[in-house]
Amino acid sequence: MQITAAIAREPNKPFAVEKIELDENIRDDEVLVRVVAAGMCHTDIVCRDQYYPVPLPFVPGHEGSGVVEAVGKGVTKVAPGDHVVLTFNFCGACPSCQEGDPGYCHSLFGYNFGGARPSDGSGTLSKNGELIHGYFFSQSSFGERAIATERNVVKVRDDAPLELLGPLGCGIQTGAGGVMNSLHPRAGSSIAVFGAGGVGLSAIMAAVVVGCTTIISVDVKPGRLKLAKELGATHTIDASKGNAVEEIQKITGGGANYTLETTALPQVLRQCVDSLTLRGVCGVIGAAPLGTEVSLDMNSIMFGRTIRGIIEGDSVPDIFIPRMVDLFMQGRFPIDKLMKKYPLDKINDAVADSEKGTTIKPILMMS
Questions:
Q1: What are phi and psi of 8, to 5 degrees?
Q2: What is the pLDDT along the chain (367 residues), one digit of tens a residue?
Q3: DSSP state of 32
Q4: Domains, the chain, ranges and CATH?
Q5: φ, ψ dihedrals at 283, nearest 5°
């Protein structure tokens, strides 16, 4: 089957939009999806640039949404015609998966970054005999069709705008889940979110939903801070103009109950920890290059402060994503305010706008 897709061929080079071949012979546990749209996430760009060793060339895309066209004979969760969001994949058999924590699957890298089917290493994409690595997050949704698996497709309600739902599969799920599922802030508590991109702003919206009463957004871009205020932040701090730690301590009267780090910058993580009150909890979401290290004051941690890594918002996608859709449809989680649509052939414009900070969450439209 011929499809149009965006390919990462070289690190730090523009994506190439080309016609390629998609394997039509889906396996028993696989699902063929006509992709309507896909969100662009920071992970797509850093994998192109080889922060993580995804084999090149490959088709990125891990926030797809679309309509099921065909299912393997072993698939029972979805059927042709269903609307679905594509999310991360996991083995389903390791201790983490069996205990309901698929984001910490012991085979997470193989199932999401390997560039091929983890079961046998076979490919799904090619061009004139050239192997194009696919199966990125078991979807590679920067194309008109995607092969996913029964585990990483999530059925969603038909009346929701499908083109806006893809980012629920990763970025929005990560930020919102980081608050709702990981930190579990009590109503009336304080939280400071460092970084006002798609993940950070999703965390701000989640903090509103769960009832935090002091919600602080920290960034260096005034436009993003303005949007954070619109989405429910009670306070904003431009970290380029002052000491964010001192400001948070002043606002909260000694430190925040919770902080969330979304930037992947070691110096920002240090600020997150230093901004906590005693017994406060810092959630770490930002995906830094492998080997990145951070320096912390051990005496600060001694006073009951906790640092907690978070992957995919500690989400069980089949449960959490439909809940996010319901909140959006009720007007309580306005994800549409983060988004700007681009046709697939303008993917490099989307990358540029994202890196400049003028677009929070690019949405690539496939038609």
A1: -90, 110
A2: 999 999 999 999 999 999 999 998 999 999 999 999 999 998 999 999 988 889 999 999 999 999 999 999 999 999 999 999 999 999 999 999 999 999 999 999 999 999 999 989 999 999 999 999 999 999 999 999 999 999 999 999 999 999 999 999 999 999 999 999 999 999 999 999 999 999 999 999 999 999 999 999 999 999 999 999 999 999 999 999 999 999 999 999 999 999 999 999 999 999 999 999 999 999 999 888 888 999 999 998 999 999 999 999 999 999 999 999 999 999 999 999 999 999 999 999 999 999 998 999 999 999 8
A3: E
A4: 2-169+334-365 (3.90.180.10), 176-310 (3.40.50.720)
A5: -95, 135
Classify the phi-psi angles of 100: left when phi > 0, otherwise alpha if psi is within -120 to 50, otherwise beta.
left
The model scores a pTM over 0.90 = yes
User: What is each CA distance from 59 to 35, 77, 285, 323, 350, in whole angstroms?
Assistant: 14, 26, 24, 29, 16
CB burial of residue 20 (10 Å; 0-12, 13-18, 19+): buried
Going from the C-alpha of 345 to that of each of 14, 23, 117, 364, the distances in angstroms are 11, 22, 27, 9
∠ CA 96-44-306, nearest 5°, is 45
57 prior amide bond cis, ω within 30? yes
Distance CA 60, CA 15 (A): 10
Contacts of 352 (CB under 8 A, 6+ apart): none
Structure tokens that stand for 367 in this block: 């038609």
